[in-house]
Amino acid sequence: MTTYRIICSDALTALQAMPDNSIDSYVVDPPAGIHFMNKTWDDNKGGRDRWIEWLEEIMAEALRVIKPGGHALVWALPRTSHWTGMALEMAGWEVRDRLSHIFGTGFPKSLDVGKAIDKAAGVER
Questions:
Q1: Distance between CA atoms of 100 and 122, rounded to whole angstroms?
Q2: Are 70 and 23 spatial neighbours (Cβ–Cβ below 8 Å)?
Q3: pTM for the structure as a whole
Q4: pLDDT of residue 8
Q5: Which helix (H) or strand (E) holds 74?
Q6: pLDDT digits (tens, 9 = 90+) for 27-42
Q7: Average pLDDT over residues 15-24
Q8: DSSP states of 1-42 as a string?
């Protein structure tokens, strides 16, 4: 029987309590280091290098507990994703694929795109 667990805890503390090669995958949404809404949990730890160092320690523990051939899915905000990538590589992970969530800010909510294209092209409906 397969057992699934979701662990909601401080990542480093939870990982340090796990034995080597004991998990199949690691899915994590770490703070982005942008001080989102002035929340202290999302500060940059004193700058880029300190933030990368902080995440590298966590991801090194994750690599220790992951089974051979296991994968991680690590969320990152686009503007600090390069910090996340650096931390992963420095911890010993191989970054293979990258998914991007593209989002627009200030996009008109009630715009009919088809009508806007016709209008820009000078076509009347």
A1: 34
A2: yes
A3: 0.76
A4: 84
A5: strand 66-74
A6: 888 888 888 888 888 8
A7: 95
A8: --------S-HHHHHHTSPTT-EEEEEE----SS-GGG-GGG
Sign of torsion, CA 120 121 124 125?
Answer: negative
Q: What is the pLDDT of residue 84?
A: 94
The residue to which tokens 């999302």 are assigned: 42
Residue with tokens 């076509």: 123
d(CA 64, CA 93): 10
Q: Smallest Cα–Cα separation from 20: which of 57, 82, 63, 64? A: 64
Cα separation, 40 vs 34, in Å, equals: 10
Those residues with Cβ within 8 angstroms of residue 86's Cβ, 6 or more apart along the chain or in another chain: 52, 56
